[in-house]
Amino acid sequence: MNLTTLAAARAEAGRPVRVALVGAGKFGSMFLSQVPTIAGLDVAVIADLDPAKARAACREVGWDEARIASTRFTDDVTGALGEGIEVMVEATGHPEAGIAHALAAIEAGLHVVMVNVEADVLAGPVLAAKARAQGVVYSMAYGDQPALVAEMVDWARAAGFTVAAAGKGTKYLPEYHQVTPDDVWQHYGLTAAQAADAGMNPQMFNSFLDGTKSALEMAAIANACGVDVPSEGLGFPPCGVDDLAHVLRPRDIGGCLEHDGMVEVVSSLERDGRPVFRDLRWGVYVVLKAPNDYAAACFRQYGLPTDQTGRYAAMYKPFHMIGMELSISILSAALRGEPTGTTRGWCGDVAAVAKRDLAAGETLDGEGGFTVYGRLAPAARSARERLLPIGLAHGVRLRRSVPAGRALSMDDVDLDASRQAVRLREDMIAAAVSPATEGG
Length: 440
Prior knowledge:
Blueprint (H helix, E strand, L loop, with lengths): L2 H10 L4 E6 L3 H9 L6 E7 L3 H10 L4 H5 L2 E3 L12 E4 L4 H13 L3 E4 L2 H18 L3 E3 L4 H14 L3 E9 L21 H6 L4 H8 L2 H14 L18 H4 L14 E6 L16 E6 L3 H9 L10 E6 L9 H10 L11 E7 L8 E3 L6 E7 H7 L8 E4 L22 H13 L2 H5 L1
Parallel strand pairs: 1-2, 1-4, 2-3, 4-5, 5-6, 7-8
Antiparallel strand pairs: 7-9, 9-10, 11-13, 12-14
């Protein structure tokens, strides 16, 4: 609880934490809007494919001309990692670019705050291991759901509770898995023209709707917190905040989980489309299990809503503020040497699943597109079956036809084995299915 004190001391000493932001889209812009009011933090370089657009974004979020003039704008990420930079923020959303940028930053001795959950789920175990070996921090981005959930899980465990479930809320119906960029806006109450005027990317917003982004975020949480993922993917049970402890507990006592210690996403819609009462669409949660009868009695005495056994209770945050909270990760990495959540193992993965019948010779268009969506899967199964991760399902050609609803294999597509991301994924698979691993 002393980040502002530490940052203020750096400001007084004339040594603000110097940051390179890679990617000045919506998340980056939300962060930039807060920078002028944070003492001891200096975004010295902004790297973007369109530097002029990044400069315009700074003006839009309220930067004055003096601050803009003192900031370097570039399209050269590698060149942005010098000049006394301490922390690189990767916010491009492109999985392979994110991996390359993170590796370059780690090699340069910089801390990395990985907004890019796509890159984190594709190769996070490798990136985190390289960062540890280099003595730098590799961190989730505070403000995004995975870091907020990881914080809640850590809090619960540090207080002596079992974590029964952890996750977030979203708007979900089963038919959303088949939605494409052509019909996504009707589900947001917008016309295509209104979305275009607002600069909204239909493929990106479709990844939020079709379940891909939820799967990615839950995989990131599982990999950071060492919790399990549902064996058949997310169930998205309809659930409001008052019912979290009832719904998100093991099936053998009336809940929806296979066992304690799992990720799950709750829907803000009933299956018939009616809104859930007191939904958690914008928030995150953790369900706690009391370790003993005394703790359960304390739940009751201090007013915690519980399930009927009295042993399960929930804590939640109704909202998250996305990029406006990102500085917490940056300052924590630079001033404390601590991540706000980081990959510690490979528990969950996100496989590409056919949205429709796909024919041999078709080219996949990746996250939020017309051909595939992402489904959460246990990492052990993903490695064993060589499932195609959603992060590698863009711009690759199908070798054979795949029916709707089937998870694709890496052997179903033409993958360039020389690509860095493909090599890293093959290394992860080899490590996961090695005889030593299988015998452990």
